[in-house]
Amino acid sequence: MQYKLTYIFLLGLILLSSYTVAQNNENTDLKLFTSTTNFEAGKMVVLKFSTSQAIKPLLYCANSYGSTIVSPSLKNNILQYVIPKNMTQKIGVVNWEIIEDTISVTGKFNINPKAEVAVMETYIGPPSIEAGGTDYTMLVVIPTDALDNPIAENTIVNAKHQFLASEKTEAISTKNLIAYKNVYSQKTSGRILMASECLNTNSKEFTVHVTPAVPTDFTITARQSHQYADGNQVTTFITSVLKDKHNNVVSDGTFVTFFITNTNGDILKTSGTTINGVATSKMIHPDHEEQWHIKAYVTGMAESNTIILNYKQVILDFDVVFSKNNRDITIGHLQSFLNQTIPDGLQVKLSIYKNNKRIESYTKTSREGFVHFNLKHHVFKNATYKIIIKTAGLEKIYKSKTLW
Amino acid sequence: MKETSNKYLISALLLGLVFHGASMFFTLETTYDALIHLFFADHYANSWFEPWNYKWYTGFTVMSYPPLVHQSIALLSLVGGLKFGMFTVALIGIVLFITGVYRFSLLITSNRTVAGYASVLAVFSSSFVETLHVFGQLPSIIGISVLMHALPEIYLWLKTGKYWYLATSLSLIAVTVTSHHVTPIFGMVFFIFPLIGMVIMDASKDKVGRMKAVTFKVFLATFLTLFKRIIGFGILSLLIIVGCILPYWINSKNNPITQVPIPHGSRDSFLEVTSSGLVFFLIPWGILLILLPYVFYRYYTKRYLFFGLSITILFVLGTGGTTPIPRLLLGETAFNILTLDRFSLWASIMALPLLGEFAYRFVQGDLKTHIQSKFGAVYHRIVGGVLAGLFVFMTVFTMSLGYFRPSQPQKIKMLPIVNFLNQDDHDKWRFLTLGFGDQMAWLSAQTNAMSVDGNYHSARRLPELTTRPIERLENSKFKGVAGIGSLQQFLTTPEKYNLKYIFSNDKFYDPILYFCGWQRLRQLENGIMVWERLNIPPVSSILPKEDVAKWLKILWGVIPILTVIIAFVLNIQMLWVNALKTKAKKCPAFFKYKNDYTHFSSSILKTTHVWSLILASIVIYGIYQFYLKTDTQRSPENAIIAYYDALDFKSFEKAYHLINPKSNLPIAQYMLEISVTDGLLSSYAKLDAIETVFTSKNDSIARAKVITNWITPLEKINKVDYKSLIKHNNKWYLQPDTIDTDLPPDQLYSNSTTTYFNQGRKRVTTEQTHHEDVLKQPALEILSSKLVKYNNHYAIIGEVQNIDNVPADIVLKGTLYNDNNKVLASYNAKYHVKHKLMPKEVSSFKINFEGIAWSKTEDAIPDTFNPDEFTPVEFEEQPTRFNLQVAGNVSGSDLYKNMVLNAIEINDGQIIGSLFNSGVEEITVPQLLVTYYNEHKTMLWVDHLFVKKGVRQQRKQDFEYSIIKNGSVKIITDDMTNVFVNGLPNDAISNKIVPNRIDNHTATELQKINHPDYNYIKIELNTYIGNPN
User: Fold this and answer.
1) Rounded CA separation B962/B913 (Å)
2) pTM (two decimals)
3) A238 vs B743, higher pLDDT
4) In chain B, which residues have their Cβ closer than 8 Å to the Cβ of A206?
5) In Å, how far is B918's CA from the nearest CA of chain A?
6) How many domains does chain B have?
7) Cα-to-chain-centroid distance, residue B142
8) Which chain A residues are Cβ-neighbours of B902 within 8 angstroms?
């Protein structure tokens, strides 16, 4: 029974309070009389309301950066809300609402960009593209006003670029805050300079390198001071100027591998990098008669013709002198094609066998045309040995030499 | 009785301050530990209450070491800088030590003169000199000194039962524990337990009147009466030891040291490793070795019996691995964690009162009269002179140890490095030092940049470090296989640790840095070479840390200094009275037990004589053995070893003097011939082992096969040389080797190459780099790649080409997955790729998947060194697919490509060939990359060879390569869908830039071989230039 009474009492209270609220609502009278809804960024924005009551409700306003509360000033029954700078300097929609329990007055206004450009925010990439007309770079321009707001949609931006003799200007318009343009390479390599202009403001200079495309086939030649296999001189291999299919000289530093197949079918290798399209590469002469087939490659992209080089034997025969109980072996005088002493460094290999088993082998290099070996007592006991001497592709075998 | 000042103590203090105070400026910074304490101090100076330090080991907690000394240095550093703090604390340590020895000696001997003698001798005691000037163990010195100050207070508490003494003794123990945790724990056992024994003895004597009448029964009864005080003291001091550094104990419990023990010289067998014997046994004991019989005799009298036992145990423990006893006593774990040198230090300190006593008796007491009456005054003087001479010699020798055998590299000027790290945001990446020694701690203290390395090995956290017995990556070359093995993992996958810069003070590491893909940036003005690695992300701005509760941080920051303040307040009165003699003080209780210095025992004098003779003969025998081993020309073995040793240490003149003087080889020619040899072996190798086998030998001629093992940063090299030796005038000489006489045809060479320079940010500014200053990443293409399995070992192999127009530095990262796309392993290409590619250049590559080597403790770490060896990662599941990421960055360095394969011959599995250097730079380390193919010319495997000798300009160099023998390769997958270049799909880039690629273009140029598993090979050449012109 008691509960019932309490409920009725509470219900009564609620009804009573809602009545008061409703009455308040009827009495409130707030009316916006700022009619403009478009403002230029940076200008002062004041929302004015007429009111009949001396209340000062707060104004909630929000843009895409955030939200804030503004308190009014009341003068002659006019409520004035000064929208803070951080709201009025950024373009976009600002929604507002009067915060008052009993009333709901809402609205929105737009902040529009200034019709001037202070900064041309420009991006370009990639900074290097390939010649040929398929590769491209993208120029992105964001003209912004002094308050860092992108300017209005469909503003004309002039994209200018210079390449070789041509200078072009093309009008593009901003869309979704930016203006962009794809710049395709042409068939020639070189450097594109780019700039842009919007509302009489110009950007700085930007560079895009148009690099040559992959090389095409080329030819090679060899340069040598003589054709003799002296194991000393150097042969230089030279490529023709490497170009891509659009006739651009390839970039400096392009790596060219030269494969050399010798008489045995073994593969030797040298390499060079291009300068002005020409790669040179060096190879030391063999020390014995050889025929070389040389072919150069830019792997996967281009190759050269095959050239053949023949190296003539320089040492046709050599003398071997055994002395001091056959323990001192002197090889020489080793002479080259003009009968001159062979340049120092020719390899001579001596192998000593006993009962057809190799005991020792020594390699020495010639000095002033001679190579000298000494077979020591404590290594080679007094006995008969087989001795093989090899140099410059020649071989001399002494089947039984007795050391004592 | 008016007490006079103790002249000996005052002179000891003055001498100590002058001697140590003046010399420490030349020694302390080159010690092992001092700079580490400085680094910790720097931490406290910057963040007193925050225990987490990011600078080392990707973060560690300083709660792993008692903080008092570090905090004191940090406080003082606010006055005059870190080094001022360190030297001041060292001076305080010196004063505490000398006064500590005085008070401890007074307690033991109850004689002021004797204690004075002891304090003077303590100043020059070799163990103290070593601990301070060689090891730099400041906390240890302060710990033991304060402990010695505590001992008389403990005695008085136990003896008199006055609570005041309990308070003073506990306050001093608190200071001890906050400065060094090990000291009070072992000090309890080795100093305080014997002291308790002595108190009970004294109390028993009081009971029965004479020491002789003290029986075990009396002793036990006294013990029981004193039991309350003893147990009270014991419990309270235990509470203090635990409570004062509670955060330390909690940290040790949470992060137990689970690392592989780091070898320490004090655990060696001193007879085998004589250098450890010298440093950890001979020097700490010094002159005390001669007096051992006296020390033991005195400490084994009834009153000191327990000290006798204690010093015996300390002596034995201090012998390290010489006898098995320390290992048995301590147990395996403790033996491997503790450094045993501290036992010798404590034993020598314990013996100091008796050294003072002996000196007193010898100089002005009964021993003097005894010797003079028995042997005459002259003998007394001679013996005195010899003993004093030996004592001074030991001190001077110890002091100058760092001069003769520097433990540290030359002092490095840190300022250029600090400046470098501060420029251009270089401290946004981690760095690593190589060859800095303990100076790396000083660098860390001066910069905000973080290092992956560190100098406090107990705090290491990365498994790559804790599983290796190495202290630092920094000095990894001294740690053999484990060291270089650990280092190369960091060098190969540096992006894991954001490691971008390496400061190298040691040329030794250059080849490994180069072949792991690093490049030289520049040499700083202090001679340190900066190496950098491209494509490393900076350290993220928020780093993980292990946080601890706030109350622990407060405890840690407050208690240590508080203990000092409390101890100071409690003991100031005693200090005041002692120092200024403001009032006549009652003699302390232990003064009752004076020793009788009237009858020096004849037998102990005799024993000392005999003992000295034995010692002398051991020393003479040792010197003779040393002479036999080091007389370089006494035997052909010695000559060979001396020759290789001289070459190893680059003492070429010494080596020349071992060359046969009749060989007509002038020294100038010899030096010239040596100077023109460069390469892995002659410039970057360290001799590891040498074995000589004589193939023939008689009185005057010998021929030896010399098998040498060399450690290089890249691999272990076994070399066999044949040397002939000859004897002239009783001296053995080596015959000189023949040299290569090859002469290039021309005098002057020219070579045109394209060089590159990337200026980075164009404007001089501290702003972030403008987007237009960022170069495009070079386009690369993976021509082929596949996952293969060879002998249970997975690898990704393939070929990569730089298809751009600029040279590229390349980083290849492979990841293996199983069928369920679970990541199994990830690693980077190490040696098996040319890290720098010219435009359009191709390189074969192989990515090995290395596990953390010897990550399981049961994996035996091989004794022999082989940096090339690696531990394949153990896969729980079968890898079936892979992801390959290749990143290119423009690089203008190390683009030397003028190496030519100019001759080749293939015989029975051996490739013998020769390389020709056609350019104008000397090639220091030539590398061959050998790719194996099957009969369809499908790539199967990639191998490498480092040629041991360099190639001079326009000259040839032979090489020999063994074709891999058995084991066929199984291709698991060659699916290239997950191959990415600079984060973009490989195919897209390839189709755009090289749409008409000629596949397998150079397949016709493969070298044919005869092999059951492989049919063709391809040889590619890579070069390391040690000294670019």
Assistant:
1) 11
2) 0.87
3) A238
4) 772
5) 6
6) 4
7) 24
8) 268, 270, 283-284, 286
Q: pLDDT tens digit string along A365-392?
A: 888 888 888 887 767 888 888 989 988 8
Average pLDDT over residues B739-750: 80
- The band of A19, judged by pLDDT with boundaries at 50, 70 and 90, is very low
3-state class (DSSP) for residue A269: strand
Beta bridge partners of A106: A97
- The pLDDT tens digits of the residues spanning B307-343 come to 999 999 999 998 888 888 888 888 887 888 788 888 9
- Is residue B856 over pLDDT 60? no
Residue B612 maps to a domain: no
Residue A373 tokens, joined: 């070996």
Give the CA count within 13 Å in the CB-facing half-sphere of B626: 9
Confidence (pLDDT) at B2: 47
- CB of B56 within 8 A of CB of B453? yes
Among candidates A212, A259, A286 on the partner chain, residue whose Cβ is nearest the Cβ of B1005: A259
Sign for the pseudo-dihedral over CA of B420, B422, B428, B434: positive
- Residue B241's domain comprises 7-30+65-406+558-599
Q: Which of A257, A273, A299 sits opposite B754 (nearest CB)?
A: A273
pLDDT of residue A13: 60
The ipTM value here is: 0.84
Helices (H), B817-946: none
Strand intervals (E) in B736-875: 780-790, 793-802, 808-817, 823-828, 836-837, 842-848
Record: contact A376-B724, CB cut-off 8 A? yes
The whole-number average pLDDT for the span A225-234 is 89
Long-range contacts of B598-606 (CB under 8 A, 24+ apart): B598/B366, B599/B366, B600/B361, B600/B365, B600/B366, B600/B367, B600/B370, B601/B297, B602/B370, B604/B293, B604/B294, B604/B297, B605/B367, B605/B370, B605/B371
> Per residue in B592-603, is it b (16+ CB within 10 Å) or e — as a string?
ebeeebeebeee
Distance CA B146, CA B113 (A): 22
Cβ of residue B701 closer than 8 Å to a chain A Cβ? yes
Q: What percent of chain A has pLDDT over 90?
A: 35
Token pair, residue A247, equals 């006739």
Write down the mean pLDDT value for chain A: 87
Pair B148, B264 in one domain: yes
Decide which of B575, B599, B623 is a domain's last residue.
Answer: B599
Residue B56 CB: number of other CB atoms within 10 A?
Answer: 24
Name the more confident of A180 and B187.
A180
- Comparing B891 with B590, the larger pLDDT belongs to B891
Tell which residue, B77, B67, B208, has the closest CA to residue B138: B67
- B240 and B326, same domain (yes or no): yes
Radius of gyration of chain B from its Cα atoms, rounded to whole angstroms: 34
Confidence of residue A33 (pLDDT cuts 50, 70, 90): confident
Are residues B594 and B657 located together in one domain of the fold? no
Q: Is the peptide bond before B771 cis (omega within 30 degrees of 0)?
A: no
Q: How many Å apart are CA A282 and CA A285, to the nearest integer?
A: 10
Can you tell me the mean pLDDT for A140-160?
Answer: 89
Instruction: Tell whether A328 and A398 lie within a shared domain.
Output: yes
Residue whose token pair is 């929000």: A62
Q: What pairing do the DSSP bridges indicate for beta strands A38-40 and A73-75?
A: unpaired
Closest CA to B241 of B183, B280, B314, B319: B183
Closest partner residue to B776 (CB to CB) among A126, A253, A283 is A126
- Domain of A143, CATH number, reads 2.60.40.10
CB pair distance less than 8 Å for A300 and B997 = yes
Q: Does residue B439 lie within any of the structural domains?
A: yes
Same domain, B994 and B967: yes
pLDDT at residue number A287: 87
Is B916:B952 a contact under the CB 8 Å cutoff?
no
Among A112, A146, A172, residue at a domain's last position: A112
Domain that holds residue A247: 220-313
